[in-house]
Structure prediction request, 510 residues.
Amino acid sequence: MKSAENAPNFYQVDNEIRSIGEAEGVILMPASLAWKKFDWTKDYFEKKPSNGFFLWIKKSQEERLNTLVEIASKNIFQKMNNLIVVEKGLNIKLSSFCRSIKRVKGKHFAKAKIVIKDNSSLDFVQRNAWGDKDEFKADYEFILDKNAKLKTTITNLGQGSSITTREDVYLLGKKSSADVRIKMIGENGGTFFSQSYMHGEDEVKGHLECSGLIADNSSTITSIPGIICNSSKAELTHEASIGRISEEKLMYLRMRGLTEKKATELIIKSFLNS
Amino acid sequence: MNLLQIKNLTVEIEGKKVLDGLDFDIEKGEVVALLGPNGSGKSTLAKIIAGDLGYKLKSGEIIFAKENISKISPENRVKKGIALAFQNPPQIEGLKMIDFLKSIEEKEDYFKEEKLLNRDVNKGFSGGEKKLGELMQLTSLNLKLVILDEIDSGLDIKKIGEVGEIIKKYFIENGVAVLIITHHGDILDILKPNRASIIIDGKIVGRDEDYRNVLKTIKKYDYEKCRKCTKFLPGR
Prediction:
């Protein structure tokens, strides 16, 4: 499996697209070009996008597709407007990674729509890692058609960053289902305001889990999960938890010879893997 | 020669003395059993020696290999050769045992229980699996003193035998000193400690070179008798 770091299908640094890879049955291009080329995309983009990508998947893929967007220069403002469409009857794995790679005081505002059509399944991993004084805002909408399936983990790491996110999962099609996990890790004074909603119609199934880990005394996390249900046949659940790094676990790892820093890193890593 | 020497150790938790002017020592390569009733301070002593920062010393000092380690961090105590097998280790979801071992191991050849390697550390472990997990971790380190806190609790006779053989092979036969905190005699029959000490109300009240004498007395008269038992040597 290729990771987002070594072979991205879409790779952007600051506001410059560095590379767009090719894969059979996949159309990938800047969002602005898709707006011109495919009229139907106007149903999803609220206005003409200036930045971001359009990923249209028409065939099942053996390998995980991935995108990587980085901020490498100071005071960059990335305004991403992404559209991902998974056509009918496909099995797709997709990873998306956004980050700043040094102290840049960057801004990354992302608006994304992810459409999963009839009988398709999407395994989607979104990782966001932001540093000191970065500002990150994200608004993701997932739209699931009939019998579509979504399994997603969205991880936001804020090391001194300001992070505001919102996810809406619309289970529109009959028998569609979603398993959504949102993870937040606040370090070095990172602040989070996160809203996550799951909207269910007829005969759908969904679970939303939001969990936060606060690694120091100066970070804060606000997490608001919600389920909006319009049918007695819909089965929606949610849970949320925010906790500090357990002193007991930290001491246990240190009593195995790990420094406090390494023990903390291991606990954060285990939180991400759990 | 003393490997570990504890002098006049007093520890209070919420104003209550948990260890009360305790003196204790272990020689290089010595195997010592520490017995005592619930709440006598056994586990506190184990954690204090291993450097748990949740406990503060009110007075006294801990000398290890001629060095005062009272203020040394837990990780540096491991580097000096001290580690504790927890009675109830915390579970760490998302961390595979094999990855944990790779991050702490100091040698290549150590005890590995294959079926636990790809499971999350202590997650859903049975009582016996927790003990084996602790032993995997401790045998991967270069130690001079291992402290085993209730390593035999909740185990059946067969499992106690298995655990006892691991302790013998990886520690005792390699000259590592072992402090065994226990309620039971079964594991002592396998490890055959050089002596047994008794702790009551945060103090070592007696010792005997033959652990069987101690067990017999406890079984017959309970711990309170040990306090006044003239056949035990005083202190330490």
Notes: The mean pLDDT of chain B is 92.
